[in-house]
């Protein structure tokens, strides 16, 4: 066995028997915990609309009414906008959202299709400038059954990826570590957004 960082100076190896057992607050195990209570807002559905109707109950209808900073909007187009995901999978995870409250990709007008595609390309370019992403997951979850968190208002995810980003935290700890505040990420991406 190897010594754990921060152990005593005697150099004693970590042994499972040395683990301090929990008392009534969970299954005993040797894992340390990184608590992320801010995620409970997402898990509890705090910002999830209660209806499928357009309007202030839909976050994607409400966000464009806010300032760019308050709404975490990175770029506004004529038919769609790019906004940081409030519950990101990776740093820089954003969404391209049409202003029009529609649920299905087939409902987009030809102009909206072009702008969603253009904003997606620009998002990739800006993220590469800011954080040198090695790749991207890009996609839409269509309908509740497909995993759409807000199925009533179409949105396309742009998730930057880096080699080795699936580290032990999400796999073992079921936690994502984000090294930057969303407002700082928004400012960097907005500053680096391509003009064409």
Automatic annotation (TrEMBL):
InterPro entries: AP-4-A_phosphorylase, FHIT, HIT-like, HIT-like_sf. Transmembrane segments: none annotated. SUPFAM superfamilies: HIT-like. A motif (Histidine triad motif) lies at residues 153-157. Keywords: Nucleotide-binding. Residues 59-168 form the HIT domain. Residues 1-26 are annotated as: Disordered. It holds the Pfam family HIT. This is HIT domain-containing protein.
